[in-house]
Amino acid sequence: MRYLSTKGGSTRTAAEAIVQGISPEGGLYVPEFFPAIDLEALVQNAGDYRAIAKSVFNRYLTDFTADEIDAVIAKSYANNFDAPEITPVVSAGQKESILELWHGPTLAFKDIALQALPHLMTTSVKKTGEDREIYILVATSGDTGKAALMGFCDVEGTRVLVFYPEGGVSRAQRLQMVTQTGSNMDVCAVIGNFDDAQTRVKRIFADEEIARELDARNMRLSSANSINFGRLLPQITYYLFAYANCVRTGTVKPGEAVNFCVPTGNFGNILAGYYAKRMGLPVHRLLCASNRNNVLTDFFHQGVYDSDRPFYRSMSCSIDILVSSNLERLLFEISGRDTAKVRTWMAALKENGRYFIGEQAQSVLPDLFYADYCNEEDTLKTIRAFFERTGYLMDPHTAVAQTVYDRYVDKTGDATHTILLSTANPFKFGTDVLGAFEQAAEDDFENARRLGELTGKPVPAQISELLQKPVLHGDVCTLEEMPRRVLRA
After folding, report:
1. Is 3 exposed, middle or buried (0-12, 13-18, 19+ CB in 10 A)?
2. Cβ–Cβ < 8 Å for 158, 241
3. What angle do CA 248, 249, 251 make, to 5 degrees?
4. 241-274 pLDDT, tens digit each
5. Cβ distance 329 to 271 under 8 Å?
6. d(C-alpha 3, C-alpha 31), whole Å
């Protein structure tokens, strides 16, 4: 298996693509083809997350040995998750299941990939003969930052710098990052939103002067954002795992199609579901759920991507994004893998903040995706209504997805069984979730305690212990200062 860039250029091995993160042309790496899954074997492995992960990794990491893949999976999915299934599937009625992706150390779905990426990265470094220190540069909208810090903490031969938007993450998310220990850890707030930070990070990757300065220090940049295929690959696994478990429990019949409803901002999580579908997983439709930053909803309805619009900070802050990087990989596929078209669209986005993919490319989207969004009031209503109806407590991102799913059923009447991706533990957003039931206080941690008292759900230790940890990373910089901040680290 070789890897292509969405913007053209030479192909790479999986190890080379993982180490580089972004291609020299500024494109994202994609597999040269989608390997087929064996549905019968998949169902036989239902309940065994590691076995399904191994089958996925084997198909995409063909330059890795079986022993190397076994070692990566054993290290990635061990005692670092509080559920033996890694990603449990919970029934939410006859036509809906919930895939819980937040049982890892940082209580968010990013752990699934970022517990694996450090081991994929270090193995890839050895395979490519790279002898420079790998400098992981991350822009986060809330969850990726802490998950990357936890995953790469004290990993030999790596250094990590996380940029997060000042005032644009929850208090718990911020404290998770700024209290992170480790000799190779660095965190800095940025005055701006996530899109601003992500755009600057991409420019830093393309900056030849920075590359030369780092090379002189025997360092090279790589990425832990989902622009790195090593981040995207592990996410394919939980789509297959969820489907296999629905078959095992009799929720769906073998070969019967399901929907997946995904709260998404940067488009990486739902793209992994699209890749699973391309591999042969029976997926009827992927439901793309957004908050008021509804740039993806408009794109799927109109074929026009227009990021030149107001940016809203919301309680579902991890999807407060207007420039969805991973959409580039979908554009590559629906254009017939036309790198010239992708380059033209991405250039238009950079220059004008918008692009139109044309009627032919747009025509294939409705059969693959459904997109909708909801506001803050609807998010709160869904959290409360779903809890009162089922006893299940959702975080705001999951509630965005639930709201979109409910509207989808009302609009289409589609009775296809739908698997909802729950992306974060509700106590990471305790103040907002409590607000669905009563007036919240000013203190986030008091609100988390009260939420536990009100709902009977336990407050995770990862949240309750944050206040006792010292703040180790207090830096703030402007967007213009980010390149020098990278070199200062």
Report:
1. buried
2. no
3. 110
4. 999 999 999 999 999 999 999 999 999 999 999 9
5. yes
6. 5
Q: Does 81 score more than 80 pLDDT? A: yes
Crossing angle of the two packed helices 229-248 and 117-128, in degrees rounded to 10: 130
pLDDT for residue 142: 83
Token pair listed for 248:
């095992």
The answer to whether residues 196 and 190 touch, using CB atoms and an 8 Å cutoff, is yes
CA dist., res. 252 & res. 267, Å (int): 27
State which amino acid sits at residue 470. P
Q: Tokens standing for 135?
A: 């400098």
Residue type, 457: K
Residue type at 380 in one-letter notation: L
Q: In the prediction, which pLDDT does 243 show? A: 98
CB 266 within 8 A of CB 226: yes
- Please say whether the beta carbons of 427 and 463 come within 8 A: yes
For the segment 415-419, the average pLDDT, to the nearest whole number, is 98
Separation CA 243–CA 239 (nearest Å): 6
Cβ 125 vs Cβ 230: under 8 Å: no
Distance CA 84, CA 71 (A): 18
pLDDT of residue 225: 85
Per-residue pLDDT, averaged over 274-296, amounts to: 98
- Which residue is catalytic, options 110, 146, 277, 428? 110
Torsion of CA 438, 440, 445, 448, to 10 degrees: 20
Strand partners, 162: 138, 187
In this prediction, residues 468-481 reach a mean pLDDT of 96
Q: For residues 179 and 231, what is the distance between their CA atoms, to the nearest angstrom?
A: 24
The answer to whether the beta carbons of residues 406 and 328 sit under 8 Å apart is no
Does 110 participate in catalysis according to the annotation? yes
Average pLDDT of span 37-49: 96
Identify the CA nearest to 297 among candidates 257, 335, 265. 265
Strand partners, 477: 190
Type of residue at 229: F
Are β-strands 354-356 and 304-306 bridged in parallel, bridged antiparallel, or unpaired? antiparallel
Q: How far is CA 70 from CA 66, 119, 123, 221, 420, in A?
A: 6, 11, 12, 27, 29
Predicted local confidence at residue 467, as pLDDT: 87
